[in-house]
Amino acid sequence: MKKNHLILCESDFEALTNYCSTSNNALGAHNQEKLMVELSEAKVVARDNLPLNVVATNSKVLIWNMTKGQTFTVHIVSQQEMHRKDHRISVYDSLAIALLGYATGSIVEWELGDGLNRLQVMSVTQLNTETSNH
After folding, report:
1. 97: Cβ–Cβ under 8 A, 6 or more apart, which residues?
2. Which of 18, 49, 95, 99 could form a disulfide with 45 if both were Cys (CB 3.0 to 4.6 A apart)?
3. Which run of H or of E encompasses 119?
4. Sign of the alpha-carbon torsion through 14, 28, 38, 1
């Protein structure tokens, strides 16, 4: 499998780096090690330079869980925007952490609550902040 390097905007890189370095994060050993390697190899860009097909905070992402044969959509939002329940997940949710920085077509192996899952990013839609607040 081709290795995909993360492309992260500065704020997502900072959020993931800070989360990874806190001792009380909810990452298991597998995910912690994988994330640390991915962050060390990540390309960090200004938000305006982030490709539109890369998962970031405030993206709607169509995901195919290859392990379970399920397709679903999530909207990754900042911790402050978690007040609504319409498929929004926090940037600190394990699934969001797994997906941030990956482009459409990428396959990610990540340990979720039910074990190791293979996830494919099927599509990414960037939403601007003004749109997501309505």
Report:
1. 16, 19, 27, 31, 35, 91, 110
2. 49
3. strand 115-126
4. negative
Residue type for position 44: V
pLDDT tens track, the chain, 134 positions:
456 689 999 999 999 999 988 877 888 888 999 999 999 999 999 999 999 999 999 999 999 999 999 999 999 998 777 665 677 888 989 999 999 999 999 999 999 888 899 999 999 999 875 433 33
Amino acid type, 92: Y
Q: How far apart are CA 66 and CA 50, in angstroms?
A: 26
Two structure tokens written together for 80: 């402050």
Q: What is the pTM of this model?
A: 0.88
Structural domains in the chain, sorted by start: 7-132 (3.10.50.30)
End-to-end CA distance of the chain: 40
User: Furthest-apart CA pair in the chain: how many Å?
Assistant: 40
Which is it for the CA torsion 123, 90, 68, 2, positive or negative?
positive
